[in-house]
Design goal:
With 538 residues, the chain is of the alpha/beta class. Helices cover 31% and strands 16% of the residues. It has 2 domains: 53-185, Chitobiase, domain 2; 191-342 and 352-374 and 421-457 and 466-524, Glycosidases (TIM Barrel, Alpha-Beta Barrel). An 8-stranded parallel beta barrel has the order 10-11-14-15-16-17-18-19, surrounded by 6 helices. 48% of the residues are buried. The structure holds ligand IFG.
């Protein structure tokens, strides 16, 4: 669970080696904050997402030393993994070795960090936790391992930000302490997600794992991968090899593109699972399909394959919905990807179809819905699928600010909210933002945060809302650094909208909490946008 850190460590090592020994002169001891400097707010009051309930504890902080054991409930392999995740996070900063992780045989010893599962604690739900910190012990209790993982992510934010950077070797006088506290916390929505478009520009396995690290730091639990579009097919399908051999070899601007082998995709899925994040694969259809149509002539009604495309127009491509081969193709694609995806969802896209009549479109989506169900998955589609005869298990993803899924909700459908004028992370922050689009809105940090799912759409009550998801389309994003620039800080706000109680959310307090996260992002090397709307503390 640490390969990003190992990479950072190697890079740091290489950098030191190339700069030469001179740069390794002993770093000046970190001066304590000058008297009168901006008072450091306790990390208890900078947590994102805001927990349901936080209270300062009595007594001093809990000291973490190289002897601090991490103990976990016995017989639970997931808890041992989470313990090792925490031990790796604290890492060598606590001393030359990693903190020991062991299963409990009796009660937790004094001076330990205890990660416990208590399935009788039903009030915590599937992802809730209680975190108690006293000078003698840190205790995290969840009803499930997921809850314990989220408690550890909160504990992580109570630890000094510089811990996040592998190469840091704090001077001895920099103690690692956790403020005394009691926190009871659980999420408001089950679906707290982001979407990454790896088709317009390809982002590789390590980029996606990096994004998973950052999303799960903020307790997000879904990553929707937009795996195919007009500009590139990005996942190997063994029964239709030209999709990647040919259809994966370009991208917007004419770059080399790329694709995930099935092993690479499985690597991403496992990495997400270790962090309690579910991967949601999307193969957009019947539109946004030029890469497939260019790869296999038979998928075109006239039997002629169009050229590969590296522009950014939409709506010009469509599968030939009258041919049986189209449904054999779709069945093979859904079968192979579903077989690699433990999560229950398969996203079929369905957006921006300009070349089919409404009845033809509905007939196609209904037929594809049956194919998805035959492979044991729940269908998700963009909100154009709302008028279609949907199964009760199918999910509508709202994105167009001027449309509403109310009709589908009236028939029992559940909704994921991705309003393009609030959470499309590919929108520019403002007119001067160097990358990004602006068709939906300019979305500043406050605009992306100050809205509530329960009141966004008339006739779409909170009971119909699974949660929120922030798409990042990659027409103007060529690297992970570009992605981070548009995603941070706004995606942290979406994570809070998905997790925190509505009454705990208010912009003027949130911006103060957000200000403290610059230190952690700098330690993690996140290329975030220093919005002037936030009083950044570093
Ligand atoms: N809309 C298209 C995307 C992408 C986006 C860029 C959806 C569902 C505009 N469809 O959003 O493919 O081009 O902001």
């Amino acid at each position: 669970m640490r390969n990003m850190k190992q990479i950072a460590w190697v890079v740091a090592g290489v950098v030191v080696a190339t700069i030469g020994v001179g740069a390794c002169a002993k770093r000046p001891a970190r001066a304590a904050p000058a008297p009168g400097s901006r008072t450091l707010v306790s990390p208890l009051f900078t947590l994102i997402p805001a927990p349901s309930r936080v209270a300062e504890g009595k007594g001093g902080p809990f000291p973490v030393t190289s002897k601090t054991p991490i103990v976990v409930s016995p017989g639970n392999a997931r808890l041992l993994e989470i313990g090792r995740f925490l031990s790796d996070l604290i890492g060598p900063a606590a001393g030359p070795d990693r903190l020991r992780v062991e299963a409990l045989t009796g009660s937790a010893p004094a001076g330990s960090i205890a990660l416990l599962v208590n399935d009788a604690n039903t009030a915590l739900g599937d992802e809730g936790y209680e975190l108690a910190v006293t000078p003698e012990a840190v205790t995290i209790v969840g009803r499930t391992a997921a809850g314990v993982f989220y408690g550890v992510q909160t504990l992580r934010q109570l630890l000094p930000p510089w811990l996040e950077y592998e190469a840091v070797r704090p001077d001895a006088d920099w103690p690692i302490t956790v403020p005394a506290a009691t926190i009871t916390d659980q999420p408001r929505f089950a679906w707290r997600g982001a979407m990454l478009d790896v088709s317009r520009h390809f982002l590789n396995v390590d980029d996606v794992k990096r994004y998973i690290d950052l999303l799960t730091l903020y307790k997000m639990n879904r990553l929707h991968l937009h795996l195919a579009d007009d500009q590139g097919w990005r996942i190997e399908i063994k029964s239709w090899p030209r999709l990647t051999e040919y259809g994966g070899r370009t991208e917007v601007g004419g770059g080399p593109g790329g694709f995930f082998t099935q092993d690479g995709y499985t690597n991403i899925v496992k990495y997400g699972q270790e962090r309690f994040l579910t991967i949601v694969p999307e193969i957009d259809m019947p539109g946004h399909t030029n890469a497939a149509l260019a790869s296999y002539a038979e998928l075109n009604c006239d039997g002629v394959a169009p050229p590969l495309y590296s522009g950014i127009e939409v709506g010009f491509s469509v599968f030939c919905v009258d041919k049986d081969v189209t449904y054999r193709f779709i069945d093979d694609v859904v079968r192979e990807i579903s077989g690699l995806t433990p999560g229950p969802y398969f996203h079929v896209g369905g957006d921006e179809v300009k070349k089919l009549t409404a009845p033809k479109y509905a007939q196609f989506i209904e037929r594809v819905q049956g194919i998805v169900r035959s492979h044991g998955k729940q269908m998700i589609g963009w909100d154009e699928i709302s008028p279609v005869n949907l199964l009760p298990t199918s999910i509508v993803q709202h994105w167009r600010p001027d449309s509403t899924p109310a009709a589908a909700v009236a028939k029992g459908a559940k909704v994921i909210l991705s309003p393009a004028n609030k959470v499309y992370l590919d929108m520019k922050y403002h007119r001067g933002t160097p990358i990004g689009l602006n068709w939906a809105a300019y979305i500043g940090v406050e605009a992306g945060y100050s809205w509530d799912p329960a009141t966004l759409l008339k006739d779409v009550p909170e009971t119909a809302i699974l949660g929120v998801e922030a798409p990042l389309w990659s027409e103007t994003i060529a690297t992970m650094a570009d992605a981070e620039y548009l995603a941070f800080p706004r995606v942290a706000g979406v994570a809070e909208i998905g997790w925190s109680p509505a009454e705990r959310r208010e912009w003027s307090a949130y911006r103060e909490r957000l200000a403290a996260h610059a230190a952690r992002w700098s330690a993690l090397g996140v290329n975030f946008y220093r919005s002037p709307d936030v009083p950044w503390r570093h």
